[in-house]
Amino acid sequence: MEKALALLLTALLAAAYAAPGPRNLFINLDEGEICLNSMQCKSRCCQHNTILGIARCTHKAWENSECSPKTLYGIYYRCPCERGLTCEGDRSIIGAITNTNYGICLDTGRSKQ
Description:
By secondary structure, this protein is α+β, with helices and mostly antiparallel strands. It has 3 helices and 5 strands.
């Protein structure tokens, strides 16, 4: 009985030691992983397609693609732009509440030259 208990304890300790840590369970999520808020994602964009759809971490919007300037809820229908780009489009309060304030990512620095 003692040998079986010792073997079981050793097996449990080995399994616990081999399991990955919880450090990436809720934050620093990679693209494609399920999220509840953009702050959880490495890209800082948690996106879903419908109100009942599952939200997943995804990349930020590229130049000339659809974007959202801000969200009140932490989940986007369209991700914000990559660094250096600006989301030119609707910035109304109603659009922010209904999450329909879409625009297009533009490089404003390039147009000034």
